[in-house]
Amino acid sequence: MKMKKLLVVTAVSATFFVPLSAHADDLLTGDTRLACEAILCLSSAERPNECAESLHRYFSIKLKKPYKTIQARKDFLNLCPSSREPNMPQLVNALAKGAGRCDAAELNKIGHYVGLGQNRRFVVSKTKPSYCAAYENHEWTTVKTELQTVYCTRMVRSIGGFGGSLSHSQPHTEKYACGHKWVDVK
């Protein structure tokens, strides 16, 4: 269902890439073209080489404050004429807030520290920010991340015995769940 709707967006946006007549003046150019391409590329988990220029332009928009960066990126995406079509403003908003902030690399930076001294470690949050849920769950995007359990190993030594006699076993490694990490789903 999502893919079908994404194809509709692609078809609408593609009309801006294909000339309606033989005149070169009918093609979108400059930031307008890049904005339309960026909408398509940011909506998909697959990023072909053709996306490089538009994504470079989009991600090069960086201001001092995060909310200003988001607004400037949204303004850039709104240069695409199809951004004003039905349901497109919601997509542009989800892309501006989520693209580049909701991939596994970024989600794995959100969390907190536990423990003290040598036992101190970073624990990744198991909950996505609301803007990531909006980005992933938009009907016209195919991006997705999922939470996976991380397993660690540790050396353990068992002490056991029956009837008052203690026996020491050889140390062995044991696998245990020690955390989580986000991974991108392709």
Summarize the structure.
The chain has 186 residues and is α+β, with helices and mostly antiparallel strands. The protein has helices at residues 2-14, 30-42, 52-59, 66-77, 88-98, 104-107, 130-137; strands at 111-114, 121-124, 145-156, 159-160, 167-168, 172-184. The protein is elongated and about 80 Å long.
Description:
The protein is built from 7 helices and 6 strands; from the N terminus they run ααααααββαββββ. The chain has 186 residues and is α+β, with helices and mostly antiparallel strands. The protein has 2 domains: 2-98, no CATH class; 111-184, no CATH class. The strands form 3 sheets. A two-stranded antiparallel sheet has the order 1-2. α2 crosses α3, α4 (66-77) runs antiparallel to α5 (88-98) and α5 packs across α7. It is elongated and about 80 Å long. Residues 6-24 have low confidence and may be disordered.
Helix content: 25-40%
Q: What is the N-to-C succession of helices and strands?
A: HHHHHHEEHEEEE
Mean pLDDT: 84
Q: How far apart are the first and last residues' alpha carbons, in Å?
A: 17 Å
What structural class do helix, strand and pairing data support? alpha+beta
- Give the low-confidence spans: 6-24
Tally of helical runs:
7
Total tally of structural domains: 2
- How is the largest sheet built, in terms of strand order? 1-2
Largest sheet: 2 strands, antiparallel
What is the CA-atom radius of gyration, in angstroms? 24 Å
General form: elongated
Q: Tell me which oligomeric state these chains represent.
A: single chain
DSSP strand count: 6
Tell me what portion of residues adopts beta-strand conformation.
Answer: 15-25%
Keywords: Signal
Organism: Simonsiella muelleri ATCC 29453
Signal peptide: 1-24
Protein name: TrbM protein
